[in-house]
Amino acid sequence: MNIAVIGAGAIGSVVASYLTKAGVSVTLIGRPDQVTAIRKSGLHVMGVRGEETFQFPALMKLDKAYDVVIFTVKTQDLESAYLENQDHLESGFILTTQNGVQADNVLSSHFERDKLISSIVMFGATYVRPGEVTFNFEGDWIIGKPYFPNDPFVHELAGVLQKAFKVNVSNDIMGMKWLKLFINFNNCIPALLGKSMQETFADLDFCRLSMLLLKEGIEVTRKAGVKLVSLPQFPVERIDGLSAMPVEQGAAIVNKTLTGLSKEPLYGSILQSIMRKKTSEIDFINGEVAHLAQAMGLSAPLNRKIVDLVHEVEREGKFFSRDEVKRKFSLSSPGDR
Q1: What is the pLDDT of residues 252-283, one digit of tens each?
Q2: Using the 8-state DSSP alphabet, how is residue 114 labeled?
Q3: Dist. CA 57–CA 49, nearest whole Å
Q4: Residue among 125, 122, 123, 121 at smallest CA distance from 45
Q5: How far apart are CA 21 and CA 42, in angstroms?
């Protein structure tokens, strides 16, 4: 099976590297600076599987048709990635990996829906610089068809990906993607501060803000009738239980969980985009809840505010101080704790 990965950021680099190591034929598509670095020195990955440099073909656009094309760019970059590579996207299957729930809808206007396979990436990685990434932690890779029942090819693809990652096939991938959306809900707060997940959530005030955002988001999806489906290592009862807790009790759990995710600094997908001076996926995470609330004639003021503030950081290129964020959300009086 010949595979192309479009997007040489954190996840795309990890996927291309370890599939190659497992003997799968992989070509990585990236920006000119990324391709130049990989061609010159290989792709250097450090982290939970040790430190290693990988060699594989790196191109700036697809050069031929592939059996499977894996899109690992962010949701907001899917349309441009498609347009840049559309000459060789007619015959193969498409695998999406994006956070949020809109990636398949974005690409469905360009492909027959039975060619689309969706996925949820539960492992974490950080983009360091062109040709260098950190693999922060292991996790499942869950795949399934978003519009049709799974067919034999989905299981064939799972067998190939299984050579390098722990893969599960889901019969309700969209319900799982909604649950994963809430797992990513915290990425917005480090993006306001320009700090790692560990440093951000060492401050209990930001753990409290995390709880308030989650409670509001869960309430909106409940009223909308959205069904959340358990992930293999993350039962839906965990997020339901957390959202039902008193804020102080839940904040303590957020603090313990998010400060212990990785030995290396973990910045989250939204902040990583901003650090690379790119627009983030905030509209497809917290913004998804704000949009859903608006469509039902409801309000989600906390999530709407945080979406607007992240966009302000994107526009201005300047992070907020801890005190500024606390004041905007009435978290505490001025002065760091």
Answers
A1: 999 999 998 878 888 888 999 999 899 999 99
A2: G
A3: 22
A4: 125
A5: 13
5: closest CA among 105, 106, 144, 119?
119
Q: Using CA atoms, how far apart are residues 312 and 327, in angstroms rounded to an integer?
A: 16
Q: What is the CATH number of the domain that holds 260?
A: 1.10.1040.10
Q: Which domain holds residue 156?
A: 2-171
For 301-310, how does the pLDDT look when each residue is reduced to its tens digit (9 = 90+)?
A: 999 999 999 9
Say what the pTM is.
0.91
Q: Is residue 324 part of a domain?
A: yes
Residue 286 near residue 306, CB atoms below 8 Å: yes
| 3-state secondary structure string across 244-304 | HCCHHHHHHHHHHHHCCCCCCCCCHHHHHHHHCCCCCCHHHCHHHHHHHHHHCCCCCHHHH
Final residue in a domain of this structure, among 138, 171, 204: 171
